[in-house]
Specification:
The structure is a homodimer of 300-residue chains. Chain A has 300 residues and is of the alpha/beta class. In chain A, 41% of the residues lie in helices and 15% in strands. Chains A, B: It comes from Neoroseomonas alkaliterrae.
């Protein structure tokens, strides 16, 4: 039996959200989700129940979610930033809710305009109020490095992880390298500690901004992590910051696991189709390496 | 005392050699070497005593070597492919000779037009004839993956390492991921085995073609390797194979070590100057991530 890694595809949400200029239509999003699904990806972050005024690219998440329900076996996660989003997501039959806050004060304030304590209290209530049978993914941003506060003291990060762990014995918790500036040794230590203390319930969400995306995926893998967020085409970069590429590319992660003999359930050629589709969305800033490697295009 | 990694800069040879079109002048090479030197890099592969007919970009290695002797503390390595190159290098006062062969039959034949046994016998004689006081770096290519023979059986790779180890008790041996398609678990296993069996005498030479460059550097580091080849600007890509980027970029490696608190002796801003210089050589195919990261440009 080969070892298995679970890829959680985030291009439809994290990747598309940052695209500026032309709005990405609901049809484009569904086409990308379908391409990822046809490549074998069975976990995806597909949208966000936020105000379309605040984040225009996430308009139409209800329709996206409805389309996902037509894809058997797809576990679709929608982000909910607050109680209003939480209720909208449940009203539209979401199976899996994505909560999020930051491990650092600076990023939490900038991103959510709240203190961490405020966010935690709000999300703790949502966790408590989530109906039985609805899954939760709790995303903790800036676990390693913060654009405002710099390198995160490990004890401080782990304190927040411990508090989140205590909210619910089952929900999956993603430890996110939001800036891409986590170092692999740091990722390895945090995951070793978290898994050692609280078991196998953690996912790694990485970015490739500093080129360390795969090194950090590997560092988390070595520590026992088996769930990884990534975006087809490596989209998610910020068009206002040249070089600030996005999420670690799904095709890069899948290639590395493939070379390691780790099963991901992904069809390589179909994944390249999905990655090319993501990368060609107008306004997208693609990243990753594998789409450009001629030898990989010939791999079965 | 922080841990220390030794960076062996290869842009002046491995990086420049593959540039087609306009020849890189001796003055350009010396300027790049000087920029790297001023950034604190004290080990470099600066040229190759090969026929300028075979590899035109390596013409002028004598003059490059003479310039290197004006840079105190610089350990300059020149590659020698055969006895003729060996004698030329010694005649020009080289301090450190770089020998090379492949761990795979296919690449050794394509690159050197010899069987591995033929190459090994020839290089064994050169090792034996190297005068006392002249250092040797023995580069073993395609230790992990070969463009012709695919993934290398680990026992076969380690057999060659063992034979090379036996040639000389002191020379440094580089285990090279020539295609960039080594996987980190493989790199980690090979280095663990090699260092466990034969001690700390190994360097890792990686490419970033498949985006696994830093993951593989980290895998070698974790196994105890402390010497790493890399090229400023990530040059070394092949202009005939779009996407086939070159050596892992020195600035990417140095940034990762910097984030890990590992000392490299490199001045970050001066390294960016050298990396930009390497990347701007006409015909060079630059790689790596860090030159494009705005936040890194502001780092002291």
């Amino acid at each position: 039996m080969p070892e298995t890694a679970i890829i959680s595809e985030v291009a439809p949400r994290d990747g598309i959200q940052s695209i500026t200029g032309a709005p990405v239509t609901t049809e484009q999003k569904i086409a990308l989700i379908r391409a990822c699904y046809e490549a074998g990806l069975r976990r995806m972050e597909v949208g966000s129940f936020v105000s379309p005024k605040a984040i225009p690219q996430m308009a139409g998440t209800e329709a996206v979610l409805a389309a996902c329900k037509q894809m058997p076996g797809l576990e679709a996660t929608v982000l909910v930033p607050n109680r209003r989003g939480f209720e909208a997501a449940l009203a539209h039959g979401a199976d899996r809710l994505g909560f999020f806050m930051s491990a650092t004060a600076g990023h939490n304030k900038a991103n959510l305009n709240r203190t961490r304590e405020e966010s935690f209290a709000e999300l703790a209530a949502l966790v408590r109020d989530t109906p039985k049978g609805t899954l939760i993914r709790f995303n903790l941003s800036c676990v390693f490095h913060c654009p405002f506060d710099g390198v995160v003291p490990e004890a401080e990060a782990l304190d927040w992880v411990e508090r989140i762990v205590a909210l619910d014995p089952e929900m999956e918790i993603a430890l996110a390298d939001t800036t891409g500036n986590a170092s692999p040794d740091q990722v390895n230590r945090i995951f070793r500690h978290a898994i050692g203390a609280w078991g196998h319930r953690f996912a790694f969400h990485g970015h490739d901004t500093y080129g360390m995306g795969l090194a950090n995926v590997m560092a988390a893998w070595e520590a026992g992590c088996r769930v990884f967020d990534s975006a087809a085409g490596g989209i998610g970069g910020c068009p206002f910051a040249p070089g600030a590429t996005g999420n670690v590319a799904t095709e890069d992660v899948v290639w590395m696991f493939r070379r390691m003999g780790v099963a991901t359930g992904v069809d390589w050629n179909r994944l390249l189709v999905a990655a090319d589709m993501a990368a060609s969305i107008p306004g997208a800033v693609p990243g990753g390496r594998m789409r450009a490697v001629p030898a990989a295009r010939q791999a079965a």
